[in-house]
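Students often ask why we bother encoding 3D structure as a string. The short answer is that it lets us treat folding as translation between two languages. Here is a chain of 972 residues written in the first language.
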Amino acid sequence: MRSPSDHHAYPTHWEADVVLRDGGTAQIRPITTDDAQRLVSFYERVSDESKYYRFFAPYPRLSDRDVHRFTHHDYVDRVGLAATVGDEFIATVRYDRIDARGMPAAAPADEAEVAFLVQDAHQGRGVASALLEHIAAVARERGIRRFAAEVLPANTKMIKVFTDAGYTQKRSFEDGVVRLEFDLEPTDRSLAVMRGREQRAEARSVQRLLAPGSVVVIGTSRTPGGVGRTVLRNLLDGGFTGRVHAVNHAFPDDMERLEPEGVPAHRSLRAIEEPVDLAVVAVPAERVPAVVAECGDHGVQGLVVLSAGYAESGREGRDRQRDLVRQARSHGMRVIGPNAFGVINTAEGVRLNASLSPQLPNPGRLGLFTQSGAIGIALLSGLHRRGAGLASLAGIAGISTFVSAGNRADVSGNDLLQYWYDDPRTDVVLMYLESIGNPRKFTRLARRTAAVKPVVVVKGARHTGSAPTGHAVPTTRIPDATVSDLLRQAGVIRVDTVTELADAGVLLASQPLPAGPRVAILGNSESLGLITYDACLTEGLRPLPPHDLTTAAAPEDFRRALAEALTDDASDAVVVTAIPWVGDGSARALATAVREAAQTSGPGPAKPVAVVHLEIQELAEALAGTGGEPAPGTRRIPAYPAAERAVRALAEAVRYARWRQEAAEPGRVPEYDDIDEAGAAADIQVLLAPAEGTRGGAGEGTSGGAGEGAGGETGDGAGDRTSVGAESGASGTAGAGPGDDVSPGVELSAADTQRLLARYGVSVLPALPAPDPDTAVRAAERLGFPVALKPTAPHLRHRADLGGVRLELGGEPELRRAYAELTDYLGRPEELGLVVQRMAPRGVDTVVRAAIDPAAGAVLSFGLAGAPSELLGDTAHGLVPVTGRDAAELIRSIRTAPLLFGWRGSKPVDTAALEELLLRVSRLVDDHPEMVAVDLEPVVVAQHGLSVLGASARLAPPPPRTDLGPRHMPAY
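And here it is in the second language, the structure alphabet:
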């Protein structure tokens, strides 16, 4: 048998950490020759029944030949993977390439036989399902397209693993054995199955952290004060329903309880004789590895690491942070932190406050995630001040769960989205993010969550261009404006400040979604009503004329007016404005009147109500229900000290409600009969061949694990194509920034670009080179007058403001005169790269671009051409593939969109043709990820049809699609 060195080196990129069905973790990695003893030990712990199911006969032990066979692989025709926890195997899977007769074979044979073995103690944890995803990805990378498996009929668990995977399969029964054959090409069902398992596993892993039965605080000081002792105190004061232990290696030997808290005290975790679910670690960073090892040996399920001194402190700290995550995962534990603020769960059966927050918030419907302890403190404090409700009632700003993840080396916002998606105690998700480590996954999860409950995000570090210190995440080159558009497309409510985050959260948690943008305004101040009216117009709402109740209005007048507005079909929401009374008046009476009116709004859909008050704090408290217990079921009303804040929160609710309605009937990616996908693929293969030949250094394929990445720049050209490295992509979209790694590739010539675009039904108006006046005249005669004369030099392209373009040249004299003017004014013909192009029908100049960001994926962009749009950043963006609805929204979402629809009496242009162009470009880059940049500029949209006057494209080996591979956690 040949050693691995005879074929392929150890494939590091197949290594991956995975979350299992019960929330624990395991590592999947290739089996090597060094694993012989691990394999023997693993096999000894497998039951005789499981061995029988694997080998179809009693097989008490592995022979030396078996061990050699199962540990020596060429990583091509024979591959074995193991799932490990700690240093031990818990499951194995292998495939052997076979031919049509079922005999061992080599490529190009594309079928393999696959077999699993899972240790009995770990069956039911989803280990086999995870291994199947990874071995299938490995097989596809090695050119295998189909798996075959023979299973005994009694082995129902393994049959279920195969049948539930979602692949297209064939089943037969012969000689007492079930034979399953299934294609490895991912299907919509297999992808849905994989993502469903991912959601349940990751949600369960978070649930284990948020609802432990027992907690140990490691690093509890002997005297009051200090981080550990503070967390211990907060746990007890919050009424944690589980068991609590304190650990400090400096405790005296005879110390049994820590006083005055009265909790068991231990010098070591080993001294605790019962299981521990969650460990809060508050020791110096250099002592954390020993603590993690002790926790792993004890079977602790998760860690909250409050300790600092990690990636936020520099290179040494980053290495320490990576080691922390690796060590914890090797023991099957997940980590919140390091440098975390802590976790909170207000559920009555848990009451967990394992954080530095001095009090447990009252229960409510808000799930809160922050990447900053300081922001977490501010949000908790601010929500509490807004009215946290009574202990017996969920308050208007109450919290269901809270996680402040610090450096978020492991557990991230994506994990919390998985948990909150189907958490019945959370109605609104609030997130403060400073970095998004996996934008593709985040937008996917956010879109799914936003379809059932609002997701409100404030993004810090928007303009620094880099992740905050301590966040070891991939860099994304997408500008902040593009991120906003992508979040909006996913249904995320993005706000600018922490105050707006809380404002939107309390309204969404306490009020129904509005049916539309019409807003009724009523109150006892005409001026405040007008301010509210103006704020509605600014936010794009449609306010009705304010109803002034005058300063003499009594609470009963408010009740009557609000009840009338709520039953009026002309409004979708109501804003109540109030100023202090000059004479007698009770804020609590007014609050009661408003709540009663809102409670008895009559038939029809419920409408949201918000109150704007000026210096009536007692009113806000009464509306939130903090000053006296209202009747059960009483509707709570959010109150705001400024009209702009109330209206902005309401506007976000209106936009989100509209998105929900549209998302309920998703758009469709249309099919076009004239698209030649196969022809384009063949062209791309030929055009990309020179770049592929100079790649070097790229990891072999990808199965979704670590080690993904492309090689450096290439230096050789390809005919008239230009080899490029770190070249900027589309302006304002996903172009590469300084220092970013870009896959090698080729900048296509005009002819190659036009041919590829034509495969997808996109025609570019021909432009002929004009190196001298005579050639220019011949080109114009060939194309037909009138023509345009313009330069193609990079510094002059699309710069009509520099006077470098001559239009409507109707004959030879005009063309020769224009040629002389341009060369006299701008430079020699060879410097300008002049071309002649037939005139297109007049219309509106636009720009269509697509570019690929390795982290976020393909992004389609649209805007009007010209300096004003560029200066204003007036460009709309959407993730590919876009649907017909997405394309229409892109066109209409830019601020200059009125120019397309007949502004100031001009004729509307053909936006239907523009939408079709966007859809065709989207299909092109979606079908062929090698198209890493496409730029159509200008696209002149006329009353009937459009003309693409300029086009460029760049090809490169496609970046890894980590979102389509098998489940895995971020690699370190």
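Translate back mentally: DSSP finds 27 helices and 40 strands in the chain. Keep this in mind for the problem set.
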